[in-house]
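Teaching soon. Got one?

===
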Amino acid sequence: MPTNLPPAWVGWTVAMATGFFTVLTMLPANAETVSGNPGGQIVTFALHVAKLRAADEPVHFDGACDSACTLYLSLPVEQLCVTPRASFGFHLPYGVGARQNAVAANYLLSQYPDWVRQWIEEHGGLSHTLMRMEADEVAMHLPICVEVQA
């Protein structure tokens, strides 16, 4: 690690790396239904999505999936399905610091499939205001769930 980084940055990096390994052991890779998920830390969702991808586990959307939860959309289409109650809320990341938030926003956008990035761009881009993609728009790109597991 470069020595010219501020001590706070080094501490933050070490804390994040420790958190990565902790989350990997805590998050089971099971088929799951997403409903009413407000999001959370991008790192937590990114690790869980990676685990789901590796296990080829399906994800059913049956309600709101907001903020970092939208990273599930980076999974292969074959792993995803939506019900008429599904929706996705997008906004700029916040809470860490301007530089880290910009990195997080770029990461989110880089992970989304083209159709999501295009939808975000058509709706003015990510901002601090939540913008919602409803099920009818999502269903043009993802299959409809045959049966949702509770």
About this structure: Confidence is low (pLDDT under 50) at residues 1-29.
